[in-house]
Structures are given as structure tokens and as C-alpha cells.
Amino acid sequence: MALDTSITPALQTEGLGKSYGEVEVLRNIDIAMGQGEFLVLVGPSGCGKSTLLNCIAGLEEITAGRLMIGGRDVTQEPPKDRDIAMVFQSYALYPTMTVAENIGFGMRIRKVPKPEMDAKIREVAELLQIDHLLDRNPSQLSGGQRQRVAMGRALVRDPKLFLFDEPLSNLDAKLRVEMRAEIKRLHKTTGASIVYVTHDQIEAMTLASRIVVLKGGDIQQIGTPQEIYDTPANTFVADFMGSPPMNIVAGRASDGKVHLGDLTLPAPAGLPTDVKVGIRPEKLSLADGAPDLVVTPTMIENTGAECYLNFSLGGSTVTARLPGRMDEESTDEVGLNIGAGALHFFDTVSGQRLVD
Length: 356
Ligand SMILES: Nc1ncnc2c1ncn2[C@@H]1O[C@H](COP(=O)(O)OP(=O)(O)O)[C@@H](O)[C@H]1O
Ligand SMILES: [Mg+2]
Known about the structure:
Number of strands: 21
CATH topology of the largest domain: Rossmann fold
Helix content: 10-25%
CATH superfamily of the largest domain: P-loop containing nucleotide triphosphate hydrolases
Order of helices and strands: EEEHEEEHHHEHEHEEHHEEEEEEEEEEE
Radius of gyration: 24 Å
Structural class: alpha+beta
CATH class of the largest domain: Alpha Beta
Number of domains: 2
Mean pLDDT: 94
Number of helices: 8
Shape: globular
Bound molecules: adenosine-5'-diphosphate, magnesium ion
Distance between the termini: 17 Å
Strand content: 25-35%
Strand order of the largest sheet: 6-7-8-3-9-10
């Protein structure tokens, strides 16, 4: 999605870097985020997501580049002057205060008049569907309800930018899915600009208007969920985004063809001889008519709605994601088709994508 440059970006970083002494944790981070975008920073643990969010918040000083929020250079400004609100993974609520007092705490400090404060608390509580809990104490709430209160504290602020750091990580799987839908709804309703950190690629895919994939302090790719999924910039992104991950097989290309073990498939011209070939598991299907390849299962896993059939191809284990159910003990040969345009090509050494 191209950024509309006529509108002041919600957030802009230019050559942002962060080092702790000798240790470089973030390098050359260039992000331009539009108003109302839901930008998700995703990557494995330790890749620098929280550090980047803390730099945006001003909780950490950046050591290179600059940072603008709402078009204003805030690089030198303390957190309180940046007009941001943050929701963390651990949502420490004040245990002796009611839900209403917790949500209103910041407004009380800022001496917002009581009628205005009460109205705002009610509005936000209704939005979060916790208006029936306003008189309770945090100890009388479930994990999901506490997380809503924590979000409520951020929402009453009406800031330029919301920052979320893995806000759902402490919740169990089912609640996480529910809260994910809630957050999506909140974003739709409020039109807020949100930077959201997660290590969970499903959260990233479902919530983001655009995703920033990080690895080891470097941006790997920025794009819409579809762009990231359909045209991953390198093998890291291809592997990280998708479950099961994209299969990557060593191939040999020649004359408009690519050879993967015994299998020969059409390929674009101009590929290097040695190439890494990616195939998403769902692009393999049970053969309808003549199979493109016949495989012997090495392992079959049934998840309920679908099954993962593993087999060996060109020295790698490849997974096909098939609808329905199969006998997990079966080693009978299975004929598969490969969807049109299913192949991705990557450089063997750099892992970079070779063709669009
Ligand atoms: N205060 C610090 N001093 C030195 N290294 C740090 C400090 N804080 C974080 N790091 C390092 O920065 C890297 C990124 O950390 P973090 O941003 O917390 O990752 P993530 O949130 O993606 O899991 C890690 O390797 C971590 O060890
Ligand atoms: Mg983190």
C-alpha cells in the first residue's frame, strides 16, 4: 500500500539505530506509517521489537537517526511530550483501585473535571464492553477483562499514537483469539494509529494493515499481509510467515526448467543454476487426474480439519497441507499436484527473492 504523502504520517523513522555500548540492537530503521494504520512489528524473540517500540515511546534513547510523530520531530523529547499511549504485556493495574479508577487514573493526575472524566471512562468502558465491571477491583476480573482495563487506560488518552507490546501474550489461546478480534474491532471503530508488537505471525497477518518483519535488528520486509505472504523478500520471511512454513528445497535450474530431486517443473528464464525453491504447503493438493509428483509419506499429522503430509523431495522434508483426514500409519504412495505459480525462487547464498 503506497503511503499518501499529502497526509502527515502518524510515525516516521529515518535511519533509526540503537546500540547498547558495542551491541547494535537496531540498524537503519526506516518506517513511514500513515494515519490510522495498524502497523505490526513482527519477528522472533530478541530481534529488537520491544526496543524499537520503546524508542518510539521515548523510554529508550535512539543512538542514530531521527523520529517523528504526527510530523513533529520528537527525537529529543521525553515520553510525556510525545502524545503516545502504551499497552504492555504485563498490564499492572492498581490492585486497590476499581476498574473505573484504574481507567481514570491518568485523567485524575491531569485534573480533568469529574463529569468529563466520568463520561470518558463510561465511553471507553462501553467500547471495551466492561461497563458492567466499573466498580470491581482487578482481583475480581479474568485475565481478558484485566487486559481490557489496561487497554482502557490507554484509550482514554486519545493520543496521536498507540503502542502495544505483545498485549495478548499472557492470555490463553482461546482468549487470545477473542481479544485479537476485539482489538481489530477497536481499531475499526476508533481509526487510531497503532504500532503493535508480536512474535505471533497469525496476529500479524490478521491485525495489520502493514507488517514490518524484523530479524536481528534489521528490517527484512515491509508490506501488507498479502504482499508479505505472497512475495516474501527472502527465505527468512518466507519461513517465518506461514504455518506450516513455506517449504524450501534446493533446486537446479536450466533452460526454463527447475529440477527438484526427480521432479522437473517449468521455471522462469535467467535463474542461477543453483537456486532455492519455495512452495507453500497449501499449494500442494491431492492429484486431480495426472499427478505432478508421486510421493511416499514419511509422516502424516491430522489436525482435525486438515492433514499435513510430509515427504522427502530433493533432500528436504516437504509438507503438503491437505483438506480432510488421512491414515497416519499409511506409507502408500500419494499423487500430488502443484498449483500454478506456486514456486518462489531465492538466491542460495543471500536468501533474497529472485523473481516477482
Ligand atoms: N539494556 C540492554 N542492554 C543490552 N542489550 C539489550 C538491552 N535491552 C535489550 N537488549 C538486547 O536487544 C535485543 C533486542 O531485544 P528486544 O527488543 O527486547 O527483543 P524482542 O522484543 O524482539 O524480543 C536482544 O538481543 C536483547 O538482549
Ligand atoms: Mg519484546
